[in-house]
What we know:
Layout: E1 62-63, E2 73-76, E3 79-83, E4 88-90, E5 95-102, E6 109-115, E7 120-123
Amino acid sequence: xxxxxxxxxxxxxxxxxxxxxxxxxxxxxxxxxxxxxxxxxxxxxxxxxxxxxxxxxxxxxxxxxxxxxxxxxxxxxxxxxxxxxxxxxxxxxxxxxxxxxxxxxxxxxxxxxxxxxxxxxxxxxxxxxxxxxx
Length: 134
């Protein structure tokens, strides 16, 4: 016969929730108290690496090289430069070039090339006479 067992109907197992062999006659089980959350440890601050410039203050804009505007100033290992020409791309838009001049020597101009996907930290100068930029 299908589904028929010989012997007891429970198959020798205790019923759901019932405890067998308890003393005192109480079958109530008390719940454990909820464990307290572990406090997170303070992460150690990594010391600055030697030879690296200090981090920029918050709010310093970082833009892609194609978003450079005439008058933007950027700093690299050779000094501070001001953008004097609109940026253009080469090599299938993978490299971006911009004409820049030194701030300390206005006659010295160069064409700086950067990877088009790397952001550049700039200082935007706002000229009140120029009006809104587009």
